[in-house]
Amino acid sequence: MFNTMNVPRIAASFALAAVLLAPGSAACDDIIPMQVRLAYAGPKGMIVSWNTYSQLERPMVQYGRSPDALIHEASSDVSVTYPTSTTYNNHVTLEHLEEDTLYYYLPEHSNATEPYTFRTSRRAGDKTPFTMAVVVDMGLMGPDGLSTRVGTGAANPLGPNDTNTIQSIEKHLDGIDFIWHPGDIAYADYWLKEEIQGYLPNTTIADGYKVYESLLNQFYDEITPLTSVKPYMVGPGNHEANCDNGGTTDKTHNISYTVDICMPGQTNFTGYINHFRMPSPQSGGLGNFWYSFDHGMVHYIQLDTETDLGHGLIAPDEPGGPEAEDAGPFSTLKDAQTNWLQKDLASVDRKKTPWVVVAGHRPWYVSASNRSSTICEECREVFEPLFLQYDVDLVLSGHVHVYERNSPVAKFNVDPKGLDNPSSPWYITNGAAGHYDGLDSLVYPLQQYNQYAQDTAYGWSRLTFHNCTHLTHDFVASRNGSVLDTATLYKNRKCVGENH
Ligand SMILES: *[C@@H]1O[C@H](CO)[C@@H](O)[C@H](O)[C@H]1NC(C)=O
Ligand SMILES: *[C@@H]1O[C@H](CO)[C@@H](O)[C@H](O)[C@H]1NC(C)=O
Ligand SMILES: *[C@@H]1O[C@H](CO)[C@@H](O)[C@H](O)[C@H]1NC(C)=O
Ligand SMILES: *[C@@H]1O[C@H](CO)[C@@H](O)[C@H](O)[C@H]1NC(C)=O
Ligand SMILES: *[C@@H]1O[C@H](CO)[C@@H](O)[C@H](O)[C@H]1NC(C)=O
Ligand SMILES: *[C@@H]1O[C@H](CO)[C@@H](O)[C@H](O)[C@H]1NC(C)=O
Ligand SMILES: *[C@@H]1O[C@H](CO)[C@@H](O)[C@H](O)[C@H]1NC(C)=O
Ligand SMILES: *[C@@H]1O[C@H](CO)[C@@H](O)[C@H](O)[C@H]1NC(C)=O
Ligand SMILES: [Fe+2]
Q1: Residue 296 φ/ψ region, left for φ over 0, alpha for ψ in the -120 to 50 degree band, beta for the rest
Q2: Percent helix, strand, coil in the chain (nearest 5)?
Q3: How many CB atoms lie under 10 A from the CB of residue 196?
Q4: 162 CA to middle of ligand 2, Å?
Q5: 464 SS3 class
Q6: For the chain, which residues make up each domain, given as ranges?
Q7: Has this prediction a pTM greater than 0.90?
């Protein structure tokens, strides 16, 4: 079933390294699916992705409307990897599905004891209330990531009996339609920082890629209970861009590491590009970088704040940008992202999807240190005019590891109407999902547009779309499920269309 002829020699030795690193995985299990994940692929599609140690010639998924009758099959020729990876990323798109319908599925060679399930998108225009989860800046949990201990100089360990964010979302899975993770996924590039801080055993720089890939694999396995049953929509963050956290300093030995230590395959969003398939073919976007999709009464837009801002600006992760990630750009066309955004926003049918929600990894309205690597003023310059022109309702971001709910704002001016039918977009930054060395500090005094802020508890965002006029955002504290902050946006508009 799988083709070892296509596996480069070098990949075979990396696979061996992976087996040595992860003693639990037996070499004969090399076509058993791991890291199973879903993503919406247009109104009638679902992308099923999974990893295997060996390349698959034709990755195949069986599916159906009943667990006992997986009578349909879909396959592809997409089983891809990159130089330092220990696995292959398999992607199969299921098409011509019924909307808003429960399906059962299994990737081929699965050892799962029963099929996984997914539910397709709600039809655009369906005004039935629903809830979804948003996390930004969520890393590996456990002994190699965020745990109850930290390394020297790191902060914010979990409390002894705390539920972490992955576990907290898992507890709430039944109530949410999907999970949106707009960047900073896994924090595998923290391997070097974790070693320098004495948290992980030291390797040589040359062997660092093994630790990096191990952290990535652990994270994707860890979130599989979530992503195998709920679509997991992702966006690019700076920690997807290279292997060394945008540069890391070992103060003890006076060594500054740069992207130069990263092996081929560990720069320029390579892992991220291989691992995911977001619905840009269906929305005219670009790869996993920018795209949009409809779900019920909401039009969702994922933007790329890391590269490709256009307008002659150097985006934060691009060569010469403040993050020193040396990545991108991904489009050769002038102003490709904002041209796409304009077209996408102009084509939204607000009768069908009255709500327009945008996420980009980086904030520009946030009470954080005013550094170009933290606050993305260039992002504001290129995106905000379009948000204002097209009445975007809500803008979500992370990157700063705090939770901050702001007022609706336009060009730094607080909307006088607050949440009561504002004409400016509402801004919420929630980068508090947690990862090794977890939270940042708010910078006081808080910005004048701030309404609520906290920098001590890990948590995730829960959005509930009640109807076409009311949208509630909750900050859920991961450790105990308490809602620490809740706010409801009201938009005065006439609701048309169906309600179930
Ligand atoms: C299925 O295979 C994976 C990957 O080898 C392994 O981690 C997991 O424990 C197996 N599960 C079962 C139920 O055997
Ligand atoms: C954690 O849970 C254990 C077992 O339930 C309990 O004995 C312990 O007191 C708890 N610790 C804290 C700090 O709550
Ligand atoms: C790894 O090296 C760093 C400095 O580069 C040092 O601080 C740390 O203690 C070392 N850790 C171990 C486990 O040897
Ligand atoms: C640290 O290294 C830099 C450049 O490599 C050097 O200029 C500096 O003097 C060194 N500092 C110490 C304290 O050794
Ligand atoms: C990153 O990849 C893109 C797409 O392949 C390429 O156009 C770009 O030049 C690369 N950037 C760097 C800095 O290597
Ligand atoms: C951040 O600093 C820059 C340069 O000092 C300044 O132009 C800009 O207005 C500041 N932004 C905020 C939000 O304070
Ligand atoms: C919309 O939902 C809100 C919150 O549940 C509710 O208060 C309001 O009455 C609803 N509006 C309509 C028209 O049903
Ligand atoms: C839940 O955890 C949060 C964050 O630490 C804390 O503020 C809150 O008091 C806790 N709630 C309960 C009911 O324990
Ligand atoms: Fe970030």
Answers
A1: left
A2: 20, 30, 55
A3: 21
A4: 10
A5: strand
A6: 34-120, 130-490
A7: yes
31 lines ligand 1 (CB under 6 A): no
pLDDT at 323 over 60: yes
Report the C-alpha gap between 51 and 254 in whole angstroms: 39
Nearest-Å Rg of the Cα atoms of the chain is 22
User: Ligand 6 centroid to 377 CA: how many Å?
Assistant: 8
Nearest CA to ligand 2 atom 3: 161
What's the confidence (pLDDT) of residue 16? 36
CA distance linking residue 378 with residue 365, whole number of Å: 12
Nearest CA to ligand 7 atom 3: 470
Closest CA to 190 of 460, 439, 441, 435: 435
Distance set, CA 148 to CA 145, 192, 209 (Å): 10, 20, 25
What angle do the packed helices 208-222 and 9-21 form, to 10 degrees? 70
Please enumerate in sequence order all residues whose Cβ is within 8 A of that of 210, keeping only pairs 6 or more positions apart, or say none. Answer: 14, 17, 18, 21, 203
Please tell me if the CB atom of residue 270 comes closer than 6 angstroms to any atom of ligand 1: no
The β-bridge relationship of strands 470-477 and 459-465 is antiparallel
Query: Class of the 130-490 domain?
Result: alpha beta
396 C-alpha to center of ligand 6: Å? 21
User: Residue with the nearest Cα to atom 13 of ligand 3?
Assistant: 201
Which runs of consecutive H residues, i.e. helices, occur in 327-459? 336-346, 377-389
114 vs 15, 66, 83, 127, 170, CA distance in Å? Answer: 28, 11, 34, 33, 18
Greatest extent of the chain over all pairs of C-alpha atoms, in Å: 65
- 294: nearest Cα among 490, 37, 45, 38: 45
Question: Is the pLDDT confidence value at 71 over 90?
Answer: yes
Closest CA to 336 of 382, 378, 270, 367: 382
Residue identifier of the C-alpha nearest atom 10 of ligand 7: 467
147-206 pLDDT per residue, tens? 999 999 999 999 999 999 999 999 999 999 999 999 999 999 999 999 999 999 999 999
Q: Distance from the CA of 141 to the center of ligand 8, in angstroms?
A: 20
Residue with tokens 């707009």: 182
Q: In this predicted model, what pLDDT tens digit does every residue of 50-60 receive, in sequence order? A: 999 999 999 99
- Mean pLDDT confidence for 126-146: 98
Among residues 65, 58, 66, the alpha carbon closest in space to that of 107 is found at 58
pLDDT in tens, 327-375: 999 999 999 999 999 999 999 999 999 999 999 999 999 999 988 889 9
Ligand 9 centroid from CA 408, angstroms: 23
Look up the CATH superfamily of 34-120.
Purple acid phosphatase-like, N-terminal (2.60.40.380)
